[in-house]
């Protein structure tokens, strides 16, 4: 399964978001996802299996619990693919940062504050 097929499902994306905060038990993930999406425990288990089978999540047993964590390797591959497209949003964001800084500077000058280009 392609990474975007895995990430295309909102339930799997939510599971990864929950795991981004740190390792979680299968039970905790299941409870959170069931509450948000109203799906059954077996359906959540299937989503966890897809994440495991495609390398997005790892699982380790701890006593009777199963602890899940994010495996960052496939996400790095997605990030590398997205790198080809960053040029479409990076320059506009940099231009926005420049305009915001210009606006702050003009506001300070109007209010009688120091000009940041002058040394103190």
What topology does this entry show?
Layout: H1 3-7, H2 10-20, E1 24-25, H3 26-37, H4 41-53, E2 57-62, E3 65-70, H5 73-82, H6 90-110
Antiparallel strand pairs: 1-3, 2-3
Helix pairs in contact: 3-4
Describe what you observe in this structure.
This protein has helices at residues 3-7, 10-20, 26-37, 41-53, 73-82, 90-110, and strands at 24-25, 57-62, 65-70. With 120 residues, the chain is mostly helical. It folds into 2 domains: 3-72, Winged helix-like DNA-binding domain superfamily/Winged helix DNA-binding domain (Arc Repressor Mutant, subunit A); 74-110. A 3-stranded antiparallel beta sheet has the order 1-3-2. Strand 2 and strand 3 form a beta hairpin. Helix 3 crosses helix 4. The N and C termini lie far apart (59 Å). The mean pLDDT is 89.
User: Helical amount among residues, as a percent range?
Assistant: 55-70%
CATH superfamily of the largest domain: Winged helix-like DNA-binding domain superfamily/Winged helix DNA-binding domain
Class per helix and strand makeup: mainly alpha
Topology, number of strands: 3
Question: What would the average pLDDT be, to the nearest integer?
Answer: 89
Give the end-to-end Cα distance, rounded to a whole number of Å: 59 Å
Shape: elongated
SSE sequence, one letter per element = HHEHHEEHH
Named CATH architecture of the largest domain: Orthogonal Bundle
Number of spatially distinct domains: 2
Q: For the CA atoms, what is the radius of gyration?
A: 22 Å
């Amino acid at each position: 399964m392609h990474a975007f097929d895995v990430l295309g499902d909102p339930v799997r994306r939510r599971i990864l978001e929950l795991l981004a905060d740190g390792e979680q038990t299968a039970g905790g993930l299941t409870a959170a996802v069931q509450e948000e999406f109203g799906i059954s425990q077996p359906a959540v288990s299937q989503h966890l299996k897809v994440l495991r089978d495609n390398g997005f999540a790892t699982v380790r047993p701890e006593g009777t619990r199963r602890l899940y964590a994010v495996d960052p390797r496939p996400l790095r591959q997605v990030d590398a693919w997205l790198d080809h497209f960053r040029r479409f949003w990076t320059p506009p964001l940099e231009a926005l940062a420049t305009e915001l800084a210009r606006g702050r500077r003009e506001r300070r000058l109007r209010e009688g504050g120091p000009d940041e280009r002058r040394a103190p």
